[in-house]
Amino acid sequence: MNVGQFLEQARDCPILVIGDLMLDEYLWGDVERISPEAPVQVVDVADEEVRLGGAGNVIRNLVELGCRVSAAGVVGKDDDGDLLGKMLETAGVDCRALLAVAGRRTGRKTRVLSNSQQMLRIDRESCENIPAVTESRLLEAVLPLIPRQRVVLVSDYGKGVLTERVLREILAAGRAAKVPVLVDPKGEDFLRYRGAFLLTPNRREAGLASGIPVEDEASALAAGRALMAQCSLKALVLTRSEEGMSVFLENGSVTPMPTRARDVYDVSGAGDTVLVFVGLGVATGLSVIEAAALANVAAGIVVGKVGTSTVTAADLFTAAGDDSGLNRKIRPAAELAAILADRRRQGQNIVFTNGCFDLLHVGHVRYLQQARQLGDLLVLGLNSDASIRRLKGPKRPLIGAEERAHILAALDCVDFVVMFDEDTPLNLIESLRPDILVKGSDYTPEEVVGREFVESQGGRVELIRVVDGKSTSNLIEKILQAYQS
């Protein structure tokens, strides 16, 4: 799986999410005593957080991956509805199809946790079907958006927004516009989703809807094929917890995929994650099998986190490839751009420098050590062999690019190494968007390539004093003199 290419194509990908939007509230605390009032534990709350939940968790994951998301749904005209809308707008989500309706309660699920374990959940919500007038308003807002999307993701939590009429018209509009509609279903009646491109039921849901309890490989096969026929699907991704998932296609093929889960802490939101990555995979041109494989990796990541969590670019790179040793540091530009975007959101300052670093010497090492001290991580842009030949002549480099990259990656002060083939690193700098651009004191600020771009983004240039007499050219001359005499 080429994670870098996938993330590049996901950026700004237009996706509509429609479904049951709610808030997820988390209360974390310590338990040290039993209440004197009743035989229950007392939780001393130390921290609390409110996140987007339900279909909002689908949206959070898509935003994390850089997609251009539109949200559609119905919330109450209450404080929680206002908060939910503001959270979506702050995340850059198009909310023109989000309706606030008087008399309806915005859903809020409150989870109480201690030592990373859920102790109690409290639900406050409305579950009745929205009335016909609200259906009409919602469809009037949603249907014009569908032809502009790569995919439509339907996140059904059974809270009354996705009525039979709403589903029927959304599915029909998707087929008419040739926009795939993927559904994370709920309940026992999957005929409501007839004509969808793909469904992502879990084992229990598939068993209830098909009338065939999913208990082993044979029953999973029977249930999946029954649902494919009943619902006229192009594909179905049946998730089976610790047994992985099974992917059914309209040509009759079935592909089992073993679980990619590691330590399981919380399965909250795992179904949302599967919907997100299967949908985004289809939107970016992957086959359903490839998209499901990606979703399997992502689901294995999210169940290792507490609460409804997002999967970051860095998570994907770690899970999909070799993230150990020096391979963790040496990254293609597209992958590194995604990783740095994640680090930037965490508040880390990124330092960038570049050079040939042919025959590493003490001047290089001291320079890089000082550069690393200016921020939270140091990215080193390394000239390719072809680039060095153009700059320094046909006899250079003395050491090939792969060897130079591994030598530099072995330095503790270097966090990432990335190769570039151009004569200057300007394109790389614009892609990586460092906060601090570093060069040696043998340059003036005006001579530093990328200075104007970095400063326009609020960053700065730093010049580090070079060690006198220490250079690759001097080292080569010294070697020649020693061995030609």
UniProtKB/TrEMBL annotation:
One of its GO terms (biological process) is ADP-L-glycero-beta-D-manno-heptose biosynthetic process. It is an enzyme of class 2 (transferase). Its EC number is 2.7.1.167, 2.7.7.70. It catalyses: D-glycero-beta-D-manno-heptose 1-phosphate + ATP + H(+) = ADP-D-glycero-beta-D-manno-heptose + diphosphate; D-glycero-beta-D-manno-heptose 7-phosphate + ATP = D-glycero-beta-D-manno-heptose 1,7-bisphosphate + ADP + H(+). Residues 352-444 form the Cytidyltransferase-like domain. The active site is at D272. ATP binds at N202, R203, R204, E205. Pfam families: CTP_transf_like, PfkB. Transmembrane segments: none annotated. InterPro entries: Bifunc_HldE, Cyt_trans-like, PfkB_dom, RfaE_dom_I, RfaE_dom_II, Ribokinase-like, Rossmann-like_a/b/a_fold. One of its GO terms (cellular component) is cytosol. It comes from the Bacteria. Keywords: ATP-binding, Carbohydrate metabolism, Kinase, Multifunctional enzyme, Nucleotide-binding, Nucleotidyltransferase, Transferase. Pathway: Nucleotide-sugar biosynthesis; ADP-L-glycero-beta-D-manno-heptose biosynthesis; ADP-L-glycero-beta-D-manno-heptose from D-glycero-beta-D-manno-heptose 7-phosphate: step 1/4; Nucleotide-sugar biosynthesis; ADP-L-glycero-beta-D-manno-heptose biosynthesis; ADP-L-glycero-beta-D-manno-heptose from D-glycero-beta-D-manno-heptose 7-phosphate: step 3/4. Residues 1-324 are annotated as: Ribokinase. SUPFAM superfamilies: Nucleotidylyl transferase, Ribokinase-like. Residues 15-310 form the Carbohydrate kinase PfkB domain. Residues 352-485 are annotated as: Cytidylyltransferase. GO terms for molecular function: ATP binding; heptose 7-phosphate kinase activity; heptose-1-phosphate adenylyltransferase activity; phosphotransferase activity, alcohol group as acceptor. Homodimer. Catalyzes the ADP transfer from ATP to D-glycero-beta-D-manno-heptose 1-phosphate, yielding ADP-D-glycero-beta-D-manno-heptose. In the C-terminal section; belongs to the cytidylyltransferase family. In the N-terminal section; belongs to the carbohydrate kinase PfkB family. This is Bifunctional protein HldE. It comes from Geothermobacter hydrogeniphilus.
